[in-house]
Design a protein that fits this description.
single chain, 125 residues, three-stranded mixed beta sheet, binds zinc ion
Amino acid sequence: MHELSVAHAVVSTVVDALPSPPPRVLGIRVRVGELSGIVPRALEFAYDVAAQDTPLADAALVIEVSPVVIDCPACGPQQLASTHDFRCPVCGTPCGAVIGGKELEILDVTLDDTCVSEDMVEVSA
Ligand SMILES: [Zn+2]
């Protein structure tokens, strides 16, 4: 399952970036391009599996799906409404110059700032 390896990569990237000892993580936002081949619902499911027994176990995953963007020679960057019709929505020129929509990005990670050290002992216990 493709999404499971993606989910593991997201989790390990975030975990590696956390200070030590890891604070409680409340949420993660990721952006998934429509052409990335990632199915958001499958990624949500895979994330729950991948986050188990990590500092992210309680962190909610929010997935933002970003549209396909082509670079029309006449009109410049244009968002496509469909991933099946690679024509400029303005002038109709067929266009294969995809400049957006393939990405997988971690947008931000929300940490529990109110979590003081005593609580962290409790969390990790
Ligand atoms: Zn155009």
